[in-house]
Amino acid sequence: MSADRLYLVFSFSHHRGPVYLHRMAEISGGARGVAPTLKPVFDDDIERSQVWTNAEFAVQARDHWRGQGFSVSIFDRDGNGPLFERTGTDAPISQRPVQHEAHFVALQGEGVDRLGYLVRFSPERRQWYCRAIDIPSMSAERRDMETLWAESAEGVANKIIQVWGLSIARPFEDPEAAARAERERQQAAQQLNRTPSIRPGDRR
Question: Is-contact 117 134, C-beta < 8 A?
Answer without folding.
Answer: yes
